[in-house]
Design goal:
Blueprint lengths: L4 H10 L8 E3 L2 H11 L3 E6 L12 E5 L2 H12 L6 E6 L5 E10 L3 E8 L4 H4 L2 E5 L4 H9 L3 H5 L9 H17 L2 E11 L4 E3 L2 E5 L11 H15 L3 E5 L8 H9 L6 E5 L5 E2 L4 E2 L9 E6 L3 H11 L3 E6 L9 H16 L3 E3 L5 E4 L4 E4 L8 E9 L2 H11 L4 E7 L8 H10 L5 E6 L5 H14 L2 E5 L13 H5 L2 H11 L3 E3 L2 H14 L18 E6 L2 H13 L9 H10 L10 E2 L7 H13 L3 E9 L8 H8 L6 E6 L2 H13 L4 E2 L2 H15 L2
Parallel strand pairs: 11-12, 11-15, 15-16, 16-17, 20-21, 20-22, 22-23, 23-24, 25-26, 25-27, 27-28, 28-29
Antiparallel strand pairs: 1-4, 2-3, 2-4, 5-6, 5-8, 6-7, 8-9, 8-10, 13-14, 18-19, 18-21
Bound molecules: coenzyme A.
Coenzyme A (COA) binds next to helix 9 and helix 10.
């Protein structure tokens, strides 16, 4: 139910929020009395439960100066369709106009929104969001993410009370948490040099959607244990095993066979042996006990097959498609699978997945044998798309090392939250990379990412940015809080690193795997920095440095202000033709081993330098001896990113060596600069 403005403001005032006092008048004489009691001039607004945007229907009259004008205004306002009365309130001094709102999101529950306010709020879209409840840090970040922050600090005669605004956001979060509020728009709120006032308020009461999953610790732990067992199987049955090389039932066996230690049980009533792979075939699962069963039979046979698996395997991975993604019949089948998993001690991954790969243990439980060639490393990729897993594999097979590649498919049972909880405990995983298209249990995902990001970095790529936001929603906040925006805000709030492209997902993950995430901050000796910690760009060719800086800053990267001592030393070390501030042009001095070493040492000692980006484009006739560079890099104590443009073989050689020293390398400026910006804001927020 929509509250009238005076009812909304009463509720807000009950929580200590400052509003422009508002008197509701059903009759003209009452409006006059109200105006006299408040003192002229006053503002008058139509009161209606049906009208969302009062100014759009001529429902707001400002600067009403005397009794005659009150009577005129009242008559105009009460004639507006659906008018229930008129609200009279004092004219507020104009301040910085902001909007504070709350709305309900199907996946994430209650959302708080903040941004530049006023009638153009939808057009400007300068907003930030967080899931309710928020912390003080969330409130601060929300304000800093918008242009409001700059205005509050001083803009064309305006200045605003940051502290009061933080308090307001915290109070609104508290109200929405405690009361049954489905939607709230405080727009505009005028922020002054001291304090603020809510000029207009619109609240819709209603039952809130449920929040987190509410599972007990015991249930969660049992699930984690089960996930561990099926992701590290010692024995695997393949139901739908085939002798035909192009069939999924054959490809899976081929993938699994790369691990000679794994016990493999092909299941097919019509076969005796898998030719070429020398595997004995079992007529049914009944004669077998295994950790995992992989199902590769058509969708209409899957339910029966999974039922046969109960009591014989710990988990089932269903490759078959033709479920929720296909049609109504598929949805029914998928619901049945979910029920089987809930009612029995069996976990189900999929359906509609290409499989899972435990790279560390060389278990390729997928229909793509090529995944057996992945490099062992510490990045776990959890993906909602099998296609994207293949894309990543093709493009990063040489460059990145994985612990797991997990495609969860339609997620009838095993979903992101429990997999993330498993990965949190997994010693082989240092960084978790997520590719997500859409989720149903948003709150649970938020909580799982929050818990995981406390222990290891989580990098997230969400597809669907271009999808139209929910523009048909009734409130400002509702129409501004599109699904992509809410998801990204939730991930930021959970301290995940949000990236924008597939390349960035693995480039940033690799950097964190090499550098070691936030713990590396301790090595960075930044405690004495009285300014913001930033990056230093050191380049052998000036052009590379300038281009890098553009991309780095565009992604929000902050360049370190070098200390006077550092600048002085750089002037001693480098000839006058070069740039000797940040960016630093080393030019041919890079060939002078001692000078190069000293430059990097000087930068490492500057407490405001959090990260060093080193760029170098090598011409084929001018190859640098890697050993010289590596020798110097070994002594650098700060996190570093290298952009090295060279022939593929030359680059590969340097990459392998530099990365073994914990320094991620990239062949292009774009990639290195974006990674540097993300790393910096993650390590030194
Ligand atoms: N137990 C054991 N084996 C069985 C069986 C059962 N209950 N029922 C059938 N089989 C056997 C078949 O006889 C066949 O063996 P054969 O090759 O010796 O004849 C084998 O299992 C496969 O069955 P078939 O009917 O030939 O299916 P298929 O191989 O053509 O297709 C799927 C099966 C699962 C691959 C297909 O239905 C499918 O879903 N493909 C899409 C998969 C996909 O894209 N997943 C998502 C990726 S992101």
């Amino acid at each position: 139910m929509l509250l009238l403005e005076h009812e909304s403001k009463k509720l807000l005032e009950g929580y200590g929020i400052n509003t422009a006092r508002c008197i509701f008048a059903e009759k003209e004489d009452d409006a006059v009395k109200a105006a006299i009691s408040l003192g002229f001039p006053v503002a008058m607004k139509v009161a209606s439960r049906e009208i969302t945007h009062k100014s759009n229907v001529g429902g707001v009259i400002l600067e009403v100066k005397d009794e005659k004008e009150v009577r005129d205004a009242f008559r105009r306002l009460i004639r507006i369709k659906h008018a229930e009365g008129v609200n009279v309130q004092p004219m507020l001094e104009r301040g910085i106009e902001v909007i504070v709102g709350a709305t309900e999101n199907e996946q994430f529950g209650s959302i708080l929104m903040f941004g530049l306010g006023g009638v153009f709020v939808e057009a400007i879209r300068d907003i930030s969001m967080r899931l309710i409840p928020i912390t003080r840090r969330d409130a601060e970040e929300m304000i800093k993410e918008t242009k409001v922050y700059g205005i509050l600090k001083g803009y064309r005669g305006f200045k605003g009370d940051l502290e009061a605004l933080i308090e307001l956001l915290l109070k609104v979060s508290r109200i929405v948490e405690r009361e049954d509020i489905a939607e709230m728009d405080l727009n505009p709120v005028f922020v002054y040099e001291k304090g603020y006032a809510v000029a207009d308020a619109r609240i819709v009461k209603g039952r809130k959607r449920k929040g987190a999953g509410g599972e007990t610790r015991e249930t969660i732990e049992r699930k984690i244990e089960r996930i561990g067992e099926i992701l590290n199987p010692r024995s695997v049955a393949v139901i739908g095993a085939s002798n035909q090389p192009l069939k999924v039932g054959y490809m899976v066996l081929k993938s699994l066979s790369t691990n000679p230690e794994l016990k493999i049980y092909p299941i097919n009533p019509n076969l005796e042996e898998i030719e070429g792979l020398k595997l004995k075939v079992h007529p049914s699962i009944e004669s077998v006990k295994a950790d995992l069963a992989i199902v590769a039979v058509p969708a209409d046979k899957v339910i029966e097959v999974v039922k046969d698996c109960i009591g014989r395997v710990k988990g089932v991975l269903i490759i078959s498609s033709g479920f929720k993604e296909a049609d109504e019949r598929g949805k029914v089948l998928q619901n049945e699978l979910a029920k089987i998993a809930q009612e029995n001690e069996i976990k189900i991954i999929g359906p509609n997945t290409f499989g899972i790969v435990n790279v560390r243990s060389s278990i390729n439980a997928s229909f793509t044998p090529m995944f057996s060639k992945l490099r062992k490393g510490s990045i776990a990729l959890v993906s909602q798309s099998g296609g994207m897993c293949h894309y990543f594999m093709q493009n990063f097979i040489e460059d990145v090392g994985f612990s797991y590649i997990l495609h969860l498919g339609n997620r009838c049972d095993v979903d992101f939250p429990e997999v993330l909880r498993f990965l949190k405990e997994d010693r082989n995983t240092k960084v978790v990379a997520l590719y997500i298209e859409g989720v149903e249990k948003g709150r649970e995902l938020f909580e799982a990412v929050s818990e995981l990001s406390e222990i290891k970095p989580v990098v997230v790529l969400k597809a669907g940015k271009s999808k139209m936001a929910d523009v048909v929603s009734r409130s400002h906040t509702g129409s501004l809080a599109g699904d992509y925006g809410v998801f990204i805000s939730a991930m930021k709030q959970a301290n995940a690193i949000v990236v924008e492209t597939p390349l960035e997902l693995l480039d940033v993950s690799k950097a964190l795997e090499r550098i070691g995430g936030k713990e590396n901050k301790k090595e960075s000796k930044i405690d004495d920095c009285s300014d913001d910690v930033g990056a230093v760009i050191a380049t052998v060719q000036a052009g590379l440095g300038f281009t890098c800086l553009d991309i780095f800053e565009e992604r929000g990267g902050n360049l370190a202000k070098l200390s006077d001592e550092t600048i002085k030393r750089l002037h001693e070390l480098l000839p006058p033709i070069t740039m000797r501030d940040n960016p630093i042009d080393l030019s041919f001095s890079v060939l002078n081993l001692d000078a190069f070493r000293e430059v990097l040492k000087t930068l490492s000692n500057d407490s405001c330098v959090g990260l060093i980006v080193f760029l170098l484009a090598v011409s084929p006739s001018w190859t640098l001896p890697h050993e010289i560079i590596l020798d110097i890099l070994r002594e650098v104590s700060k996190p570093m990113v290298i952009v090295y443009s060279s022939t593929p073989d030359d680059f590969r050689e340097l990459r392998v060596k530099a990365e073994s020293l914990g320094i991620p390398t990239y062949p292009t400026i774009e990639r290195g600069a974006r990674v540097a910006a993300r790393l910096l804001s993650y390590m030194f927020p």
